[in-house]
Structure formats: structure tokens, C-alpha cells
Design a protein that fits this description.
CATH class of the largest domain: Alpha Beta
Number of helices: 11
Number of domains: 2
CATH topology of the largest domain: Rossmann fold
Shape: elongated
Distance between the termini: 42 Å
Helix content: 25-40%
CATH superfamily of the largest domain: Alpha/Beta hydrolase fold, catalytic domain
Length: about 525
């Protein structure tokens, strides 16, 4: 269980108003983004064209232009697409160049992250008449995607160790973000750590009584052992990552979650009335036919279980109430709205649940919708489909694709999609700061050590005070930073880079009352209660 120091938790339960300007990993402090495309991060066996064949796994790397930082958090972004190639899946989306993928990766890079949009192996039989075939091939596709995602994590760690960290990442601060189909990959890679976890009744062929996934054929869950349908990549490096984000996908089964220290924290975003991926417990449905495939645990169930197991304990300071103004007004709006959702009972597919839980944000629509963060240009689609048909000899119809897209995204537009992404980012960014322990913006350091008062000799005088309070400490243990909270634990102001044994805490616009001062030292923190009259 990831526990946070209870003293700090008491101080940081709710909101604050920061007094400083732009913050790295929160604000778009970089005007430009450098993109390196078509980097091969691994090679594995694809079954997409029938006969198994080797396939290069590709990624696009987004980095903030002109950044001098070389130890940055990295977000691995896996696109949607129903585990089938774009357009062949009957959809406009399905590649690492989807508008949503490019938009989010650019937003992250402008905030100082490295963002990586990656491909993964595709291929299953959604139109099979036999339900066992549909379920087997979808589970196998998900399994391959999980192996590929872990290959990418290992590729990056190997690059850090053997190639002088050419992408400038922090290998301990890796986020895996899955959109739609990619959400099945991000959650699966987060929690499927034992082959026996998929040898359960719903993943057993009801006719042959054999598992849908056979380890000796499809490989181990990490993809590190060679089999007829798996090639090992970058063996010897860890596949673990710090945070999983699911935007419209689901988890194969809640039993995959163990609540152990090595499991990543989990965030979720989901349209409540998505007809294809369940919000709580429910069925996966083939988008084009409506046929049943398998029952899974939706975003609500996965995030709630992560909360209950303590996997998300580290994120607690970002829930329940207003957030620092450094995260923007929308972050507080999203938080407060979700607080109301967590108190709202609903019935979802005969399940009595609340509308939301901590670390999840539901999008509540008046009609069935799926992927409201997606958008496309019809004239551009017309041109692309004409080129695809001319190159591949296919007969895709851009009008049909467009109209199919509008069925579950009826008022599609770039403005609508970006508004959904705005909300998603407003929820994600504070939790990424906290979950990844980014020193520039984390509310609480989960490893803070409360120092002995006799050692640091922290004092405040005069106290009570009218205009200012002089903080002082042992010259041998200088103060590094000061953070101030009101009597409700709300963060109200801070000063960093002090590096001195004295600091004048000016009242400024603070109203009269009691405040708590948290002083950071090189190896821990100390607290002091103060009063302004």
C-alpha cells in the first residue's frame, strides 16, 4: 500500500491559491515541439496478413524544443482503433497520427514532458460468427499489445543505459496512456503480470476447454521469451511504469490487480454512455455489428478498485476540493464537479454505483457517444481516402466513414474535441505531478521525513504578527523552501530556492488567522504554526 505521511496529508487535503507564474509540467512553457517520427522500438510477429510475419514496431517522439532538461517524465500514448488498421476497422481513427494523439502529445511536450505515440500489433476477427473465435482473437490481440507496450518501456530503459539517454527521459517516471483500444493495453500492461491470471473461465474456450491464449505459442506476459508468435526484445530491463491512464478502454479482469507496491497508480476518463466499452462491469461489443465479445471491467471499476486497494493512495492530495491556482481554474472546476459525482448514486446496467470515484472523470452526455475527443476534417478525409484507394486498390468511401463517425460523435468538431481534451488535461496534470512526484509541481512528497525540531531549531517571530514573520533555523541546516497553508489545510503561498537560515514571511494579502508553515530542508521537512492578526 502506498501510504503518505499523515501530517502532510492533514495539511494538503484541499485547495490552495499559488502566487507564482508558469510551472513546468503544468503550463505550456515551450512554444515549439520537435517530433522524431518512425523510430523502431522493437520487432515482433504480426498475424495481420494471415501468415505470421515480422513487423517493426514504430513510435513518434515529441520533445519540447529548446529544452535543456535531460531527465524528463515520459508519456507513452497508445491510440484507439479496435485492434484493426485505420479505415479497415470501419473508423476514421486508428493510427498514431489521429488528431487526438497529435494534440495530446503536443500539449504534453509543450509542458516539458517527452511524449511518445506508438504503434502496436493489430489483428483479430470481429466478424466471426463464433463467439469463442471473437473472444479468443480479441484477447490475443490485447495480449500482443501488452507485450508491445512493455517492449517500449524496456526499449527506453535500454536507451538510458546503453545509448546515453538519447530521448532525455527519467526511467522512473513513465506514464502509459491508452485511448480507446489503447486503454485495454495500458491497463493490461499495468496489472497482467502472471499468465495464470488469464487462465480463468471467461478466457477458456467453451468448446475445446483450452485457454484462448497459450503461453508456449503466444509468449509470456512480458514478451521476453521466444515462441512461434513472439520475439523477445530488450530482455533484462524492467517493464514497470509509474502511472496508467485509461481513456475509454477497460481492464480484462479485476483479478489482475493485486494491490502490490510495484503496480502503477491509475487514472480514468470515460463517456458514461459509451456503447462499445463499459463504464463499470459490462460487455465489449463489436462496433460494426453489435455482437458480444467478452465481459470486462470498465474504467469506473478499474479506478475504484485501484483506490480501494491503496494503489492510488499517493494521489490523495489531488482529490476532494479545490486545487492550487497554478493548475488553472478548470482543474478546480473539474475536481469540484467530480466531488459531486462521487456522491451521486446511479444504476448502471443493473449495478448500483456512484456516478464517479476519486481519480476518475466521467463525461456525462445526453445521448450515446464514443470518443468525443476525436475530430477530423471531411475535405482532408476525402483526399486521404482517395490516395489510400489509389495506392492499395481498396474501395473505402469517405462519405460512409464520415457518417459512421458522426453516429456516436454527432456534433464532432475540433472545438468540441479540444474542450474534452482541456477537461482531461485539467484532471490529469495535477495527478501526474503528484503520482510521478515531480518536484516542480507535486503537492506532497510521499517520502518526506519530518525532521526533529531540536536539530533544525525552526523558530517564528514575532508570532502572532501583523505584517511579517521571520523564520529562522539552525545555520547548518538551511531552509530550501517554504510553503504556507491556512487552517483548513489549503495551500496559499510558497517560496522556493531560499537556501538560507533566515526567511522573511510577508503577510501580503493573507487575511487574519492561523496558518501552518511547512519548511523544506535538504533531507526532510519541519512544521510551524503561525498567526497573523
Amino acid at each position: 500500500m502506498k501510504q503518505i505521511n499523515t501530517i502532510i496529508m492533514l495539511l494538503l487535503a484541499t485547495s490552495f491559491t499559488a502566487l507564482f507564474g508558469q510551472t513546468r509540467y503544468v503550463d505550456p512553457i515551450f512554444s515549439g515541439v520537435e517530433v522524431t517520427r518512425n523510430v523502431t522500438y522493437g520487432t515482433n510477429i504480426s498475424i495481420l496478413t494471415g501468415a505470421p510475419a515480422q513487423l517493426g514496431l514504430l513510435m513518434d517522439v515529441y520533445r519540447p524544443a529548446g529544452d535543456t532538461e535531460t531527465n524528463r517524465p515520459v508519456v507513452l500514448y497508445f491510440h484507439t482503433g479496435s485492434f484493426l488498421p485505420q479505415y479497415f476497422n470501419g473508423q476514421i481513427t486508428g493510427s498514431r497520427l489521429d488528431s487526438t494523439v497529435v494534440e495530446i502529445c503536443n500539449r504534453l511536450a509543450r509542458r516539458g514532458y517527452v511524449a511518445i505515440a506508438a504503434t502496436y500489433r493489430q489483428g483479430w476477427l470481429p466478424l466471426a460468427e463464433n463467439q469463442n473465435t471473437r473472444t479468443a482473437t480479441l484477447l490475443q490481440a490485447t495480449y500482443r499489445g501488452i507485450q508491445d507496450a512493455r517492449t517500449l518501456v524496456r526499449f527506453l530503459r535500454k536507451d538510458v543505459a546503453e545509448n546515453n539517454n538519447s530521448y532525455g527521459i527519467d526511467p522512473d517516471k513513465i506514464v502509459m496512456w491508452g485511448q480507446g483500444t489503447g486503454g485495454y493495453i495500458s491497463l493490461g500492461a499495468a496489472f497482467l503480470d502472471d499468465y495464470q491470471e488469464i487462465v480463468i473461465p471467461k478466457f477458456i474456450d467453451s468448446e475445446t476447454l483450452l485457454p484462448y491464449v497459450v503461453e508456449s505459442v503466444h509468449g509470456d506476459v512480458y514478451g521476453e521469451v521466444q515462441t512461434p508468435l513472439n520475439l523477445p526484445n530488450h530482455v533484462g530491463y524492467s517493464s514497470d511504469f509509474a502511472m496508467a491512464v485509461n481513456m475509454g478502454g477497460a481492464l480484462g479482469d479485476l483479478s489482475w490487480m493485486d494491490g502490490t507496491e510495484d503496480e502503477p497508480s491509475v487514472l480514468g476518463y470515460h463517456v458514461l454512455r459509451d456503447p462499445f466499452a463499459p463504464y463499470a462491469e459490462g460487455a465489449v461489443i463489436v462496433p460494426t455489428t453489435g455482437d458480444f465479445v467478452v465481459n470486462v471491467s470498465g474504467t469506473y471499476s478499474a479506478v475504484k478498485n485501484a483506490n480501494d486497494l491503496g494503489i492510488n493512495d499517493i494521489l490523495a492530495p489531488t482529490n476532494n476540493g479545490a486545487l492550487p491556482s497554478q493548475f488553472g481554474a478548470l482543474s478546480t472546476v473539474v475536481n469540484l464537479r467530480n466531488d459531486g459525482y462521487t456522491q451521486t448514486p446511479i444504476v448502471y446496467q443493473q449495478q448500483n454505483i456512484t456516478l464517479s470515484v476519486d481519480n476518475l472523470y466521467p463525461f456525462v452526455t445526453s445521448n450515446l457517444q464514443s470518443g468525443p475527443w476525436d475530430w477530423w476534417s471531411k475535405p482532408f478525409l476525402d483526399a486521404v481516402i482517395a490516395g489510400v484507394n489509389a495506392t492499395l486498390g481498396t474501395t473505402f468511401n469517405s462519405d460512409t466513414l464520415h457518417l459512421n463517425g458522426l453516429l456516436l460523435n454527432p456534433d464532432m468538431s475540433a472545438a468540441k474535441a479540444r474542450a474534452y481534451i482541456d477537461t482531461t488535461m485539467a484532471h490529469f496534470l495535477p495527478r501526474a505531478c503528484q503520482g510521478l512526484q515531480l518536484s516542480e509541481c507535486a503537492l506532497v512528497n510521499s517520502e518526506d521525513i519530518v525532521l526533529d525540531q531540536d536539530r533544525v531549531q525552526l523558530k517564528a517571530a514575532p508570532n502572532p504578527a501583523v505584517d511579517f514573520i521571520m523564520l529562522s533555523c539552525n545555520p547548518e541546516t538551511p531552509m530550501e523552501a517554504v510553503q504556507v497553508y491556512d487552517s483548513y489545510g489549503r495551500y496559499v503561498k510558497a517560496q522556493y530556492n531560499i537556501n538560507h537560515h533566515q526567511y522573511e514571511l510577508k503577510r501580503g494579502e493573507l487575511p487574519p488567522g492561523m496558518y501552518f508553515v511547512k519548511v523544506k530542508f535538504a533531507d526532510g521537512v519541519a512544521f510551524q504554526q503561525v498567526m497573523f492578526q
